[in-house]
Amino acid sequence: MFNHKTVLVTGAAGFIGANLVYKLASLNNQIHIFVKKSSNLWRLKNIIKKIKIHYIEFNNTKQIERVVQKINPEIIYHLAAHGAYSFQTNQLEIIKTNIFGTAKLLTALNSVNYQCFVNTGSSSEYGFKNKPMKETDLLEPNSFYAATKAAATYLCGVFGKNLNKPIVTLRPFSVYGPYEEPARFIPTVITNIIQGKPIKLTAKDIRRDFIYIDDVIDCYLKIPLVINKKIYGEVFNIGTGQQYSNDEVANLIIKIMRKKAIIKKGGYQERSWDTNFWVAETSKANEYLKWKAKYQLEDGLTKTVNWFKNYENFESIYCQRS
Question: Per-residue pLDDT averaged across 255-275, rounded?
Answer without folding.
Answer: 86
